[in-house]
Amino acid sequence: xxxxxxxxxxxxxxILALAGALALMRSxxxxxxxxxxxxxxxxxxxxxxxxxxxxxCEGEGRPAVVLDAGSGDAWLTWFQVQPALAKVTRVCSYxxxxxxxxxxxxxxxxRRRIVEELRTxxxxxxxxxxxxLVGHSFGGLDARxxxxxxxxxxxxxxxxxxxxxxxxxxxxxxxKERHSxxxxxxxxxxxxxxxxxxxxxxxxxxxxxxxARRQLGAVSxxxxxxxxxxxxxxxxxxxxxxxxxxxxxxxxxxxxxSAGERQRxxxxxxxxxxxxxxxxxxxxxxxAARSPRSRHLTVEGAGxxxxxxxxxxxxxxxxxxxxxxxxxxxxK
Length: 332
Hints:
This protein has helices at about 5-30, 80-85, 110-125, 140-150, 165-170, 175-195, 210-220, 225-235, 240-245, 270-290, 305-310, 310-330, and strands at about 45, 50-60, 65-70, 90-95, 130-135, 155-160, 255-260, 295-300. It is α/β, with parallel strands linked by helices.
């Protein structure tokens, strides 16, 4: 017969075992969650010409802010920024074709095709122009091309450590070699996913809240996402050709936010890293010179993903940017 002390010890052992199991689940939930049912998308799936694109909008007011993510990235990358901006104006994030909840789009992909799909998406969703286009990295080139092709629909541009169309013309040889290897790696991953082989999640955002983490985890093994990521690497190489037909200078308000910290990967020689930091600064300065009405801010404490490293700065600067644009628009 068990003694009271023995029973208490057994209960304590069970509690400790349960706590350990919960801790293990918590540390691994990013691998557990992707097998769940993603359920309906948080936004709307809108037909843009035979396939659907996911658009998530919040808030009210003009001008609407449109958030365009980096290469292969989904709408949830803006989870810290979008709700705060929605208190100021209408703000929309979206998934490019094949990414997140969006259907695959027609191929071959091109940056101009992406821009026209975004334009159709916004028009069919009833989001009236002019827009404040906010582009991070790859998305910064989308925003600039949209403004070049449809200047009357753009109230202003905000570039978050944006890519530059001449990036690869100035990048060190070692970077180009690594990029070529990355393209091949992405192609092989896309083919594996399309064959139905077990795949890791294509995107993780550790700081996401529980519900958003589950949404992302449930869609982040879709083969279409792997293929879209590969296609977007190819699109980046074609950027100079796609910008040849649009004006280099745009007469719109422009805000350029650049990374204040470019950390050196352990395998990158110091001299090579310092050379790249100088080139990156020159390219960011060139982007800031593209409008006579521009402002350039280097964000301390932020790496390439400024909106996730320093969302406070992005929210503050975008709020001011929208407020400065709003008065003239309200007079129309």
